[in-house]
Design brief:
This protein has about 300 residues and is of the alpha+beta class. Helices cover about 45% and strands about 15% of the residues. The protein contains eleven helices and seven strands.
Length: about 300
C-alpha cells in the first residue's frame, strides 16, 4: 500500500511508541470518518478493527506517518464496504436510513474547542445530512467526507482513494454539487421542544394536534428492515403522515418507555414497548413545523443508541 502525503497535524510516530498507543490516539477520528462514509456504526467499527489488524501486523513495513497511513487504510476499507452496502440495499425491504448513534455535543466553552468547528461536525452526522450523502457514489462520498468534513488536503485524499489529485478535485466538485442540489438549507434538526410537542400529541392520539405540527411538504421515512412492519415507501403530505403516526403509536398501550436523548447530534426520542422499539427524529422547516420525520425500527440498527459512540 502506498503511503499518502501527511495530513495537517500528522507527525511521525515517536521512536519506540507502542502500537496500541499510536492507534488509540487515532481511533475516535477513524470511527467518525468511517461512520460518515457508511452511515452504520457497526460497519464503521468493523472497518476500524480491520485497520487495527493491519496496523498491528508484524509483517507490516515501517510507517513514518501513522495518521496518513491509517486514514488511507480506513478510507479504502470503507469504500469497499460501501460497495457491499449498495449490493445489499438492492434486496433491502423498504427505505434505508442510517444507524442511529448516541452522541454528545462538545462543550463550546471547553479549552481547544472551536464552536464553529464543533457545530460543523455535529451537522455532518445528522439524519438529514447522512441521507443526503447517499446520493453520492462510494468514491464521491469518501472524497467529500475527507475534504469537506475532515479538511484533508487533496494529495492525501488522492493517495487514500487511489486517484490523482486533479481527479480528486473534480470528484470533490461533483460531490459538492450533488450535495448542494439536494440540500435544503432552510431545514434543521427539530429541537427538543418541537419534538416533545409531537410525542405528546401522539400519546394523546390526536390526529388534529399532530397535523398542526406538520409542514405542508412533510415527508416521513420509516426503516423497519425485514423484521418490522413499516411503510415501504416514503409517506408524503401532512394528512397521511399524521394519520400513519397516530395509527403506529396507537398500537402501543402498555409498558411504554419514552426517553429523550441525543442521537446523531440532535434531539431524538427512543420509544420502547413490547413488540416495538424505535427511534423518532425529525427536521424542522422554515415555518418552524416538522418537514421530515425519520423513524428507525430495524432492530439490527438500534445497537448504538444506548452507548455513546466516538463520533467526533
Amino acid at each position: 500500500m502506498s503511503e499518502p502525503t501527511t495530513p495537517t497535524g500528522d507527525q511521525p510516530a515517536p521512536p519506540g511508541a507502542r502500537l496500541e498507543e499510536v492507534f488509540d490516539a487515532e481511533r475516535d477520528r477513524l470511527i467518525g470518518l468511517a461512520y460518515r462514509m457508511l452511515g452504520s456504526i457497526a460497519d464503521a467499527e468493523d472497518v476500524v478493527q480491520t485497520a487495527w489488524l493491519r496496523w498491528s501486523d508484524p509483517g507490516r513495513g515501517p510507517v513514518d506517518r501513522p495518521a496518513a497511513w491509517l486514514t488511507t487504510v480506513v478510507s479504502r476499507l470503507a469504500i469497499d464496504r460501501m460497495r457491499q452496502q449498495q449490493r445489499r440495499r438492492e434486496d433491502y425491504v423498504g427505505p434505508w436510513l442510517p444507524e442511529p448513534v448516541a452522541t454528545q455535543a462538545a462543550d463550546p466553552g471547553s479549552v481547544g474547542v472551536d464552536p464553529a468547528r464543533a457545530a460543523e461536525l455535529a451537522d455532518s452526522v445528522t439524519f438529514g445530512f447522512l441521507v443526503l450523502l447517499d446520493r453520492l457514489s462510494p468514491v464521491e462520498r469518501a472524497v467529500f467526507v475527507l475534504s469537506d468534513v475532515f479538511g484533508e488536503p487533496f494529495p492525501s485524499i488522492a493517495a487514500a482513494v487511489g486517484r490523482s489529485p486533479d481527479a480528486v478535485r473534480q470528484i470533490a466538485s461533483r460531490a459538492r454539487r450533488k450535495v448542494r442540489e439536494g440540500r435544503q438549507a432552510d431545514r434543521r434538526p427539530a429541537d427538543e421542544a418541537l419534538l416533545t410537542e409531537l410525542v405528546v400529541a401522539l400519546g394523546e392520539g390526536s390526529v388534529d394536534k399532530v397535523l398542526s405540527l406538520m409542514s405542508p411538504d412533510v415527508v416521513l421515512t420509516s426503516d423497519g428492515g425485514p423484521a418490522r412492519r413499516a411503510a415501504r415507501r416514503p409517506v408524503v403530505g401532512p394528512d397521511r403522515v399524521s394519520r400513519l403516526m397516530v395509527h403506529l403509536t396507537s398500537r402501543v398501550v402498555d409498558d411504554v418507555e419514552v426517553s429523550l436523548t441525543e442521537l446523531n447530534g440532535a434531539a431524538a426520542y427512543v420509544i420502547r414497548a413490547p413488540g416495538l422499539h424505535m427511534v423518532l427524529a425529525a427536521d424542522a422547516g422554515p415555518d418552524g413545523r416538522i418537514a421530515a420525520v425519520h423513524i428507525v425500527m430495524n432492530p439490527e440498527k438500534l445497537g448504538g443508541i444506548d452507548r455513546p459512540a466516538p463520533v467526533p
